[in-house]
Amino acid sequence: MKVLVIGSGGREHALIWKILQSPYVEEVYCAPGNGGIGELAQNVPIPETDFKKLVQFADRNFIDLTVVGPEQPLVAGLVDVFRDHGLLAFGPDAKAAELEGSKEFAKVFMHKYGIPTASCQVFDKAKDAVHYIHGLNGPFVIKASGLAAGKGVVICKTRSEGFDGINMIMKKKAFGKAGETILIEEYLAGEEVSVLALADGERCVMLPAAQDHKAVFEGDTGPNTGGMGAYAPAPVLTKKLRDLVYESILMPVLRGMKKEGREYRGVLYAGLMITDQGPKVLEFNCRFGDPEIQALLPLVKTDIVDLMLESAEGRLKNKPVDIASLHSACVIMASGGYPGRYRKGKIIRGLDQVPRDVWIFHAGTKLSGGKIVTSGGRVLGVTSTGETLSEALDRVYGAMGRITFDGAYYRRDIGHRAYKRV
Ligand code: AMP
Ligand code: GLY
């Protein structure tokens, strides 16, 4: 089989690493790929937004399966375009991907089908939102409705922070068109967890729960990023809660989306808050979480290509995914300054110094003059497994000590919540 992966991050690198373990797979291409991906697969210089060229490439190169990594091409309908050309792609089509593409759609849908989530009001005029806030006491949460790379959320402790938030999103248009409509929602207290499942329209199979660390600094302080590290399994999701998530969230989503004529195939990622009243949905994503999937894939023993084919073709078996009884962790090495301004083009040293039981998945890297250099905010995902979480993390941090680049930054407290539970 020939597989094309679309995207250029740590998620795509980890997926390609796993896909290559499938006995069916002969060749993998990645559009556009990155410095590390180029060592495993053939990078193809087509941007993930150029649907015409992507279809042409898949067609001419007899690609059997295309795996779409990021949300933008899914929300913009890449899977639809491939389907229209008779090509098989893993992921939801545009109508299904709206579950991530529009937080307003997701909220209305959840209310209609009784899926537990924070209560909320939707506004498309700043004046009305300001008026509404006058009647609230903090904390509450303001969200841009559209795609904002995980950054379109403001937690407001006070009314005045709420006014600033509305000003930033609706007047200063900090997230562009994504902020034309906003949601103001109830603040949920609890511990967060990411639940990723593969769905085929009617059924789904769950991966172990993972926990991301979104804030840039230790102790979960500072601005939110795409994610600074993740581990799995996350003990916050007990077996009982996992069954509850399946029954009260994942299956109702699949049944509801089918009823709406938006059959959901691909990754269904529920970002949950485990509250005193049980799990509630913070958001849905229509693709693998990053860095969560970097931590999850080393645990998956089932052939991932089989799962993706079954999902895309609507024929998943009602059989649990085979998971190694290990713990896994991924810590992100980022460019100093991220998620704000940071420098690029720094030479990365020590990549060949890491032990074999540690995997380095590249995100913002490129090959320049024969050297791997930084080219983004999140640069590397360093991942390992162990009999315990602390064993996995010791391996990861040990390897990170051998990798250097100018301005490298990473959190040293990944997994702190799990440690508190042991
Ligand atoms: P989202 O993109 O909707 O997942 O939001 C990004 C982050 O904001 C989440 O991972 C949470 O940490 C936080 N967040 C979002 N909604 C809420 C809420 N209703 N209550 C508390 N925290 C929230
Ligand atoms: N790690 C969070 C996300 O992928 O949205």
Q: Can you offer a commentary on this structure?
A:
- The structure is a single chain.
- By secondary structure, this protein is of the alpha+beta class.
- It folds into 4 domains: about 1-95, Rossmann fold (3-Layer(aba) Sandwich); about 125-180, ATP-grasp fold, A domain (Dna Ligase, domain 1, 2-Layer Sandwich), CATH 3.30.1490; about 190-310, D-amino Acid Aminotransferase, Chain A, domain 1; about 325-420, Phosphoribosylglycinamide synthetase, C-terminal domain (Glycinamide Ribonucleotide Synthetase, Chain A, domain 4).
- The chain is about 30% helix and about 25% strand.
- It is built from 13 helices and 23 strands.
- It has helices at about 10-20, 50-60, 70-75, 80-85, 95-100, 105-110, 125-135, 160-170, 240-260, 290-295, 305-310, 390-400, 415-420; strands at about 1-5, 25-30, 40-45, 65-70, 90, 120-125, 140-145, 155, 180-185, 190-200, 205, 210, 215, 220-225, 230, 265-275, 280-285, 325-335, 360, 365-370, 370-375, 380-385, 410.
- Strands 12, 15, 18, 19, 22 and 23 form a 6-stranded antiparallel beta sheet that branches.
- α7 runs antiparallel to α8 (about 160-170).
- The longest helix has 21 residues, at about 240-260.
- The termini are far apart.
- The mean pLDDT is about 95.
- Adenosine monophosphate (AMP) binds near residues 155 and 185.
- Adenosine monophosphate binds near residues 141, 143 and 150.
